Structure formats: C-alpha cells, structure tokens
Amino acid sequence: MLSKRAYNFNAGPAALPLKVLERVQAEFVDFQGTGMSIMEMSHRGAVYESVHNEAQERLLSLLGNPKGYKVLFLQGGASTQFAMLPLNFLSEGQVGSYVMTGSWSDKAYKEAKLLGKAHIAASSADEKYMRLPNVESLDLPEHTAYVHMTSNETIEGTQFKQFPDTGSVPLIVDMSSDIFCKPFDVTQFGLIYAGAQKNLGPSGVTVVVAREELLASSPSNIPTMLRYSTYEKNNSLYNTPPSFAIYMVNEVLKWIQEEGGLEGIERVNQQKAALLYDRIDSSEGFYRGCVDSRDRSIMNVTFRLANEDLEKQFIKESEQAGFIGLKGHRSVGGLRASIYNAVPLENCQALAEFMDSFKQRNR
Ligand SMILES: *Cc1c(COP(=O)(O)O)cnc(C)c1O
After folding, report:
1. Ligand 1 mean position to 180 CA, how many Å?
2. 357 assigned ligand-binding residue
3. Residue of 82, 84, 109, 154 with the most ligand 1 atoms within 8 Å of its CB, for mutation
4. Distance from Cα 174 to the centre of ligand 1, integer Å
5. pLDDT tens readout for residues 149-174
6. Which residues of the sequence carry a binding annotation for L-glutamate (predicted)?
7. Looking at domain 261-362, does it have CATH number 1.10.3720.10?
8. Per-domain residue ranges for the chain?
9. Where are the alpha helices (DSSP H) in 77-122?
10. Would the annotation count 197 as a binding residue?
C-alpha cells in the first residue's frame, strides 16, 4: 500500500522512517502472535523484556560495543537530564562547567545553577551563538565535576565536529538532535543523552549511554527516580518504562543497521545537507545561512531571506506545496529545515527545487 507522505521537516517530534512505521503497523494489533499489542503487555514479561534488551544491545552495537558502558531508558525528556546531571554529579564544593552554544546549553546551565555551582567554560553568546566557541583549551576551574556540551544546537543550527579532551574530567554531551547522524567514538564521553524524538524514535523516552562507574555513583539522598543508579541497577525496569517508545527505538535502530549502519546514514546525511547549503551559498545572497559555515549543522539547516515578509511568504508557499515545519524556532525567527536521519534524500531534493523556484519568482 502506498501512503501519501508529507515533506516533513519538523524539528521534533520529527519524521520517522516509513519502513519502520509500516512494520510497526503490521504488528500493531498482534505482536509476534501474542494476541495483543506491545503496549498492552507487562513490562515484566519475557516478550517485552527481550525487546527492551535488544534495543540496548543494538545501541551498544552501533557504538562498537564499548567496554564498561551501559544504556539507560528514562522519561522526562532531555530537559529532565539538565537537572539530573547536577543532582547526581555535583557534590558540595564541586563545579559543573558548561560550554554555551545556544538555547539548549543555556537551559542545561540554568538547571545546574539552581542546584549547585555552574561555570561557563566557553561561550559564543556575545556572537548570538552564530558560531561555535573554541573549545580546544577550556577554562576549567579546580573541582570541576564534569564538562557539559551540546553537540548540535537544534534552534541555531550549529554542530560540533570535534570534542575537546577533558582528561580525567567526564565529558557529558546532550546529543538530542544529532545522535547517530554519523559514526562517533563514545569512549571520549563519560555520559551522553538524547530525547528520542529527533533521531531515535517517538517522544517519551530519553536514552542515556554512560560509563558504568559514573552511573553507579549517584548520591543516596536524592529522589529514587532521579538517581542514575536506580536505572543502572534495575536495567531501567525499576518502574514501568515507556515500553512502546522503547520498542520504536529498537525498530529505528534496526533500520539504521539496514541502511548501512552509521557510515551509511552519514553518507546520505552529508548529501542532504550539501544539497540545501549549496542552494543557500549559490543564491547570490537571496538565501543567507544563519551560522558560520564551518560550524553548520547537518541536521538543522537555518537560513534567512532579505526580510520577514519574504520569509512569511516562503513559509506560506512552501506549505501550499506540501512542505511542513520550515518555520524557524520562535526565539530566533527565520527558516529551518530539520533533516534528521529519517528525512529521505528525495525530500531534500524537492525542497532544493522549491528554493530554486521561489528564488526565480521573487528575486
Ligand atoms: C529537543 C532538545 C532538547 C529537549 O528535549 P525534550 O525531550 O523536549 O526535553 C534538549 N536538547 C536538545 C539539543 C534538543 O534538541
């Protein structure tokens, strides 16, 4: 059956692979002959538990099965991680050091300040986050408990290509909007986290991958559900997990493996991003990229037109032509095409053609 699919460039929740949606649909009502959907079964039963474990194994396998790392499934979105990090890792007299690159790192930093001492180790705030700060030599105070970075700033459209060596200080990275967009070495990080709804699945589950000893180090005087150690000790089954979302993540990971793993995914992602950035760069100023070209994200392509009226017209006409989600975040304005893993190359080609024709008609 052919489905009519929108050109979906939503920032999150975002496009999911059609193959995944169709597979899930096929087993929606009767999961593997059980006579019920996966949503209707006990999270303590063997059927669900094997899906749960499989999702963790696939995640680790895509990361090259790093020694000493564990996968947790949590709720409350990446935003709850902003608070869990200082709660778990900032003890009395310690400092959390933050690299400020945009809206999301700012939120993470503010949560840490509520709960302990937070320090700004590098920042491009005075350039309105339109480029990334130099992180080669970070300004780290004594007693730094961890360094926090945001790998991809979803709203501004910047993305780190490299990470600093923080030595014995754990590097913690919010990868919500670019996890698994390309291969990476997880062993350079103490902990990474991502809300699923951009590159991993539907909303409702947050994935954490971290060194075991970090996860085990939670203090015992914070609420049980906010301790990493609770999830670590109980295989993320201390309470009812978001079972349907985890099942979906497993299906998306399967799809990544079928697409040639992270190398295969990156190849297509680079093509998609190049298509759109080429349109911007060759438009003789009709389209203007928002961020320094060296720091551009291959997940969120942000750009502007000569004035806000023209931007409004672009959004209106793009919607009429079947493109969804091209309006920039309300805090920064402009336009944004989110081209996560599941957005097909053909959709980016269609957008590039629309950009050409819009320029022809309006320059
Ligand atoms: C979307 C996003 C978040 C917020 O995620 P929630 O799951 O809505 O809490 C945090 N960080 C980044 C980089 C994001 O893109």
Report:
1. 15
2. no
3. 154
4. 8
5. 999 999 999 999 999 999 999 999 99
6. 44
7. no
8. 21-258, 261-362
9. 77-89, 103-115
10. yes
Q: What is the pLDDT of residues 208-232, one digit of tens each?
A: 999 999 999 999 999 999 999 999 9
Q: Which residues line ligand 1 (CB under 6 A)?
A: 12, 77-79, 104, 150, 154, 174, 176-177, 195, 198
HEC profile of the chain: CCCCCCEECCCCCCCCCHHHHHHHHHCCCCHHHCCCCHHHCCCCCHHHHHHHHHHHHHHHHHCCCCCCEEEEEECCHHHHHHHHHHHHHCCCCCEEEEEECCHHHHHHHHHHHHHCEEEEEEECHHHCCCCCCCCCCCCCCCCEEEEEEECEECCCCEECCCCCCCCCCCEEEECCCCCCCCCCCHHHCCEEEEECCCCCCCCCCEEEEEEHHHHCCCCCCCCHHHCHHHHHHCCCCCCCCCHHHHHHHHHHHHHHHHCCHHHHHHHHHHHHHHHHHHHHHCCCCCCEECCCHHHECCCEEEEECCCHHHHHHHHHHHHHCCEECCECCCCCCCEEEECCCCCCHHHHHHHHHHHHHHHHHHC
134 is in an annotated binding site: no
- CATH of segment(s) 21-258: 3.40.640.10
Question: Is the Cβ–Cβ distance between 16 and 342 less than 8 Å?
Answer: yes
pLDDT in tens, 58-91: 999 999 999 999 999 999 999 999 999 999 999 9
Name the residues annotated as catalytic: 104, 174, 198
Q: What are 244's two structure tokens?
A: 């349907």
